[in-house]
């Protein structure tokens, strides 16, 4: 069995945990246990982190959650936002736990199924930062472009018909005008739409939260079966625990704002 | 269950199939069936494909094997050479079958565990082409360098002590002088050495044949569970079957030079 | 006198040899002898190699032809397809013979006559691979774009008026909308159209088969007069002949499917 | 008069404020008022932020300080760490206040005085991230390399002779072996050494805290005299104030852990 | 006090000196003295240098003027053309004088106020060269594009309404269609329009002659207060004076075609 | 017959014309006429142009010579310095005449004979600029490095044994330590040494003045036989002749400082 934590870097009260618990139950391997979590109240009542400063405000919370998950013995952690928020920071303090995130995971899959892909995002505002991430991951020459649908993070699940029709229109634009051969949905809140877009457009459409969950599971299995754990050399060096203790804010307060356990046997329980 | 073909793009008589069957049995998931194959005699008595022209000579054989594997219903295929020989060509004719290869698979893992990795190869001769592959995959800025140990493909398994000591020396150079944080063994014939190098140097060391097998399995599971299959749009378009029939050499002769089946239940049988 | 082989990497029966023999006769220097050849039947009845897998299937044939040409004492070889199919593989086994190909040759000329050029191709399907080639050659910043005219390789010579009007429209788009300052016709089967497009659009238009022939002749003269032959060092090392003999498929069967000799004195004879 | 805040993103108790107040008094223009600040206790007792996770932990504090400085009417803010920690996040919430940081400011100056520069850092651990920053700023081709002196942030001011001799040795290596034409000291705690290194090596040596202060002053003057303020369009859009209020943690607690005012008339007072 | 020379690399008779003297008086710091100059008659009657060959013809004049300014003790020199004509050449012979130019200065400012900017130029003809400059400066990923308004250098000041409306239209295109977050006016003769464009489009609009003047002043102050002068190491080495004397054309004839002095006290006098 | 001008952009009195006339006679095709020229006295007594400012001072002379050569009906012009000085400027005013230069010509040849080449230069001072040129030409990934031999331009021909032994040592370093597969001599004054270096090191060694002459001849033949002339569109637009006349310095004074004619029939006469 491998144990994975799926962390939405927003407040528990945002109420997304159920969505991702359903996703985890539907897509994980039988032997995988998934805990779906989100951030505690103290970090702030974030319903989304569309702004860089919002990401910056929740970063401490992500770091605390990462440390807590590592201490609990999780094999892998997903930071559930397509900005891959605080991925480098979390990896530094994850010990032997694998950390992954939706943008990295989705691009890997899209790059293995096509030579060129487009990313459908909510607002143009996101593009500059996400594009830099896709470039840094190494997919500059595979990127057809970003396509925004004028919906904020919290609007994707509000009116499903509107969301579906906008995703389809954007995907069609990517495929027909910019020659994309695959698509990535560029927000974890676009969950639930990929199969329909795929069916209508006839190209692979990657859902980022599923991709991240599966990548975490893959990483966890590689760790368990091949022994491949995070490097701790040079830039991957972890800070000394005594220094962390002296600083004093790394482990303050609760690490999570909620938790739904999707058991290896596929059951599910909330805390 | 998912079914994976591991194809060594050299002649069956090279006798590597056993090595990779052992590897597959040790590292696959329980529900995975692996067929370890190599090329038929007609392609040529290739014991290695260190030269570009050798790769070119076996490419038709890889294409034929890919088509045969797809027809047999395999979920994924590994082309077992660190040059990722004919990966693009094979992907074009793989139908719904996933195709992957060691260099792509290894770099993905190394990039998820470190910020900078080195690749240990046999001869300097290989570097120009492999470096171009690593760059094209998107890992230019993560590449510490290539380190050659003055051993040809067929020499890695000849004298294990010599191989181990050279891999260690090269790995140490990568880590200490060029600040590599992880290592990749840049030849599938380096199989069997990664754990020892990892233990001695204290950084993740990726074995490319294991990495490719696991990536194939991961891709097969993504296909089965999420429906993510190869794109067939634009540059991914497959050639029409009637044209292939007219051309007449795509399916000539036997597709494989041997086959060892590592069953899902971990058994193993030869043909 | 220098001797050049112009090899169309398709079946002789495709019947293009006459076209390229006419071209050679019209454009070569008086002291140059050109043999126009194509692949033997055994490679497959390829009329075009628009697919990556088609290229992969003919690669062994190109390698065999290269070796045969080198043995015959040719000074230079052209691989007559704008994909520059198997250029690296052929160069490895060419001995002292120069090998060149249309895309490389055309880009060099366009780059010397303008700061920015566009490439007119048949189908969008080709672009991903050709663009990667143009980038790898070093012309990324000079590339205005690729412009497809919805014609397959075998259609260019079918209806000359249709081809001419589509090339013109695509070229105009490149020049007027994307500010191309020169054009390259991105398929050797576009032969015969460059002068008219050039006349109408007022920018240099490079024909790729002429460019490749002339680049081969230039390379042959540099070899003859300056002694500049292919490097055989490091990644340019040729495989040992005894190993090739042991493998046994390098020199199987006929190397060419036809041959038209355009003599130095401009005569012409078929075999 | 322009007003600049110089913020050390570490705890006030780290005791660096005096160093930077002296620097500010020595290098600012007469009409400039500088407030030297650091982070409040609640952020954690950080004496340095050498680790990515340390940066992540102080990011919320930097965002709060930025908002507070903007509300107080500062013209420009310096985030005083060579990682340029949270620069993008701070810029988003700075309103009309300019935000700058040492790495960006130093590279601009070095690039205007030379064609190639090296950066002298404390530990190899820093390089991966700082190099990515220098590349992203656009100086990839001007970078001779990074040179580490095996000193942590807090050690630079501990033994001045040791620090001076190591900076000199590293600088000499950069200039003599890698052909650097200018140097940047890659840590604000290297303050006080640039003039001596410059004198001994005969190339410009940029101190990053002075560079950042002067760049802030320059930006403040450009804003005052030319009206050039931060863009708020597209990716530069600021989050809505009502949403920030609803979230509730943006303005919690004290924004600063200390403050030394270096008055426009050069006086100086502590709080 | 710092002394700056603003050199228009065109003939004095072009009559632009007054425009730039007004600009200097309006934007310089009180303690700065600016001499506005242009080239002497002997260089040629250049009213603009829109062509590369025009730039080439005035380069000797720029070099002579640079040497003369350095001898007169100027702290900094502006070469007042958005091509940044002869910047590298002038920097080589400037001794301890700082040399800057509009494109470099403008991009620095735009990059500090936004993540993505567009450049509004006169004619499409300019773009190839200016784009290469912006790329070389390091702003490739920040460049939204170039937008031409079909006006030559000498036409910008001819009909102010026409110029204003075209700049606005081009700027709107950059912001609305290509998501520019800031704009740069890509010709020093666009002087006088930035404030209005800024007001109407709501994004920062950088005037290149002001930017260059202010960057020169900033560089001069850094030199005076921090001691940061041009490197003279490796590629920055200046030619030996005795060799220059032997060559004999470096200091021929008058260095300037006119001079307006904008005194530190803001007064102004012509010669 | 084609007519080529080989222009050394230094003073005639530097006395290099004989060297290049010998080279031209030895390497041109029989039907080619070559005029070897240099700059007139008025440009300055330049014996070399190792400094950027020296190049800048002779640029007007190169432009004048280009115009004169075009008027005389030359088919192609070589600017005989490895800096490829003023290539873009000269191309703009060359009318239908082809213009080329040693660095561009040499890299094309080296790239066609190897995958990786090194450049042997005189002084480290040259590297920054030449490297930028090689990168801009598109050979960044093929460049093994630059190797300087501590000789100025005028010293290469002073002591042939010293030059030969230094070129050999540098070439050996490039090949053995940095894995160069071909070499380029990075100064036209290294003429006469390539064959010996090639013989001793066993890799192709490109002489830049021969390369440039042959490339000019190749370009001239392409123009004559295929009609491929310089583009005059967009950034390649030539300045209007009436404007040039009005400016008045384009055609001042003699265009050349000397001329040796190497006739098509291989004869040779001086003026």
Automatic annotation (TrEMBL), chains A, B, C, D, E, F:
Q: Which InterPro entries match?
A: Asp/Glu/hydantoin_racemase, Hydantoin_racemase-like, Iso_Racemase_Enz_sf
User: Entry's Pfam families?
Assistant: Asp_Glu_race
Gene3D superfamilies membership:
3.40.50.12500
Q: Name one GO molecular function term.
A: amino-acid racemase activity
Highest taxon in the source lineage? Bacteria
Q: What family is this protein classified in?
A: Belongs to the HyuE racemase family.
Q: What is this protein called?
A: Hydantoin racemase
- What organism, scientifically named, is this protein from? Oceanicola granulosus (strain ATCC BAA-861 / DSM 15982 / KCTC 12143 / HTCC2516)
